[in-house]
Structure formats: structure tokens, C-alpha cells
Amino acid sequence: MQIGILQTGESPDALRHQGDYPDFFETLLAGKGLTFRRWAVLRNEFPGSVHDCDGWLITGSRHGAYEPHPWIPPLEDFIRAAYAAHVPVVGICFGHQIIAQAMGGKVEKFAGGWTVGPTEYDFGDRTYTLNAWHQDQVVKKPEMAKVLASTALCENAALLYDDRMFTVQPHPEFRKEFMEGLIKHRGPGLVPDALLADATQRLDTPLDSPSMADRIADFFLTRQAKTTGAEKLRA
Asked: Where does the record place the Glutamine amidotransferase domain (predicted)?
């Protein structure tokens, strides 16, 4: 199954040696029956059609979904077109937010502040500990979206849109080393020092990124199986 990665952000220059955002997702989802193509939508590089790949993954970004960048309206159009065409989409952090905004939700800077570092997300069936790095969040979910996970500081931490789109606020693709780099190179002056210090102390917390990777891959592959089955019935 081929997944198109829609890149909406880039690693800080000081951390680029660790890889860029599409690299992290290809590593996270390696060996799960998926192949990948990339489009840098933050530079207005868009696929010609939502059918150019079997599914789509929208990355994180330092940009806000509500900011007036020229690539955001066409990305929202692409999201709505993929939903209408039943092409599966996964969104991570900014991807989670821009999907919610495109589908009628609201994204803004959370008045309660930042969430940084290893954080527990209760999905009902199990709890995932994943790295987080955000102040922006979905403060009002789209009407058709179902909340899958929440935290005390993030009510809409994971959303499911029928069986077509699955989105999460945290970063399963961020390893300890990259989070440590964000704290050092991007955090000062942006995130309160006390939160950075607390996150640093928790960096060795075991993460459930492999389990979330399985969940993401299962979402894509199950959707592909349903589509293939429907096509056979129509044949």
C-alpha cells in the first residue's frame, strides 16, 4: 500500500542531521507493508489527485493551522476531497489540527499552555505514552469526528472520522534524541523553562511509539482491505 507523506514542516536546522519529518515517519512505519512518496506541501508541492496514492499522512509543523500561509487553503481542499473519496488519511500534530480545521473544527493556542515530552494518552482500550510538543490544539472538534483519546490539557487528543481519517495530537515519530534536541534548540524563549526542565527529566520514559505505529498501519491496511473487497463485489 502506497502512502503519500504531505510534509507541512521541517526539522530545525540544528537537528537536520537526525533526519526530516518524512524520514521519521518512514522509519516509524518501516516493515509494515507500506511504501512511501513525498510532497512538500509547505512549498506548494501538491499531488495531482487524492488518488495518486492509496492513503495520505500529514506531518507536524511549527506553523499554525490558522496562519495565512498560501498552502493551507489547498491543503484543506485536499483533505475534504480525500474524505469525500474515501481515501484514508492520518494526521499527526499539525496534521491532526489542519484536518479538524478543514472539516469544521477550531484550532487555537491553548490558554492552558504547552504540553511537552512524554505524555500519557488514554484510548480506552489502552494507554499510549508518546512524545508531545504543542500549544496549539483542536479546541472544538468537527461534528462528525469521534474523540478517541483525551488528556487533562488536551480534550481532543485523538480523533476518528468514520473509518476514513485517524488523527493524533502527539508525535509517535519523535525519538528521545529528537525531543532532547527540540528542548535545547527550539524550546528556550518559546516554552516556559519549568516545562522544559520537567520534560528533560522525563526523557527516558519508555514510549509506546511502536504500538502506535502498528495502530496507524492497521488503520491504513484495514481501509485498503475494505476498498479492495468493495471493488471485488462491484466486479
From this structure: 72-176
Using one digit for the tens of pLDDT, what is the confidence trace for 195-209? 999 999 999 999 999
Of 26, 134, 154, 173, the catalytic one is 173
Q: Is 53 a catalytic residue?
A: no
Cβ contacts of 109 within 8 Å, gap of 6 or more = 64, 135, 136
| 51 CB burial (10 A radius; 0-12, 13-18, 19+) | exposed
What pLDDT is attached to residue 189?
A: 95
pTM of the model: 0.94
* 173 catalytically annotated: yes
Could you say which of 3.40.50.300, 3.40.50.880, 3.40.50.2030, 3.30.70.270 is the CATH number of the domain covering 2-234? 3.40.50.880
Catalytic residue among 53, 96, 154, 171: 171
